[in-house]
Amino acid sequence: MNKTLRENAYRYGNLPDPAPLAAAYVPMQKSSEPTYESEKALARGTLFPGLDLPFMNLVNDELASTPLTEMMAIDFVTDEMELYLDTHADDDEAFALYQTFLALKQEARERYVRRCGAVRQEDMLGMQEFAWLKDPWPWDYSPRMGG
Fold first, then answer.
1. 3-state class of 103 per DSSP?
2. How many CB atoms lie within 10 A of CB 115?
3. Domain ranges of the chain
């Protein structure tokens, strides 16, 4: 290897000569139906059962039921629907479902903020004191706080 190639080797890596090329294939998702319920989708890592391919056959089926989990689950479903719509923009039924979940997401966040405190900086608007770092933290949830 000449000196110039050796000095710039970091740019090209150490592939054997001739290095085979790889071609990735990602099949197009066919439909937005059927879907998991939001909390199960969060636990499983996908809203769509057809895409549910557990890593090393390790399966999460349940998460603790807390106000934070509820908010996270609805947020997750909204993100999943948005990813689906990125490739299926003409699916009117999926877009209507996405709109429904956007409204649920806003309601869940507002409910959580009333109950547990600010989630985002904007949630501090109109508060009487700086309460960003006050207890309880979301992971300090206990059944005594209510369901």
1. helix
2. 11
3. 29-121+131-139
